[in-house]
């Protein structure tokens, strides 16, 4: 079981990393909004058969489900668009690293919700910021246009995680994801 979990995490990291290359290559053919919209429509369409398989009623009447799906979709749409615009002006490696910094932004945003940070989190944040500096900074102490867009994107993705954290215990996660993807797609269309 332990190895299975490790392999699933490795597979997830591989897919996530490859997505940045696909996003960058996709930008050679379509704009940021088109790419994000098409990707999100595809995500929503893929989830529909899963929803039918797990819940034959296809019941989408819960108001909390719609509120969660729409809220998540709006935030995801904004974060994804920022990321796509940022990728136009920075490297794929930088974009992947900077976007991953949402992991350290989430605990700071959680402070506003009354949660506390432990020392391990603090040390991790310092190391991640040092890594960001070494990866992104050039001769001057400034971020490039793409780096800045992706930094904002990371903050919006952190907000996305918090919105998901709020709604996911209240509703069916697969249905909420489906609504989220279609909301994101419509916004970017």
Structure description:
With 189 residues, the protein is mainly alpha-helical. The chain has one domain. 79% of the residues lie in helices and 0% in strands. It has eight helices and no strands. The chain has helices at 2-26, 32-54, 63-87, 92-100, 102-111, 119-136, 145-167, 173-188. Helix 3 packs across helix 8. The mean pLDDT is 86.
Which shape, going by the Cα principal axes?
Answer: globular
Percent of residues in β-strands: under 5%
Q: Please report the number of helical segments.
A: 8
Number-wise, the strands total 0
Residue-averaged pLDDT: 86
Between the first and last Cα atoms, what is the distance in angstroms?
Answer: 42 Å
Query: Regions with pLDDT < 50 over 5+ consecutive residues?
Result: none
Radius of gyration: 18 Å
Number of domains: 1
Describe the largest sheet. Answer: none
- Name the helix and strand elements from N-terminus to C-terminus, one letter apiece: HHHHHHHH
Q: What structural class is derived from the secondary structure elements? A: mainly alpha
What proportion of the residues is helical, as a percent range?
A: over 70%
Short structural summary:
The protein has helices at about 1-25, 30-55, 65-85, 90-100, 100-110, 120-135, 145-165, 175-189.
Q: Which labels suit this protein?
A:
189 residues, mainly alpha, 0% strand
Sequence-ordered SSE layout with sheet pairings:
Elements: H1 2-26, H2 32-54, H3 63-87, H4 92-100, H5 102-111, H6 119-136, H7 145-167, H8 173-188
Helix pairs in contact: 1-4, 2-3, 2-8, 3-7, 3-8, 4-7, 5-7
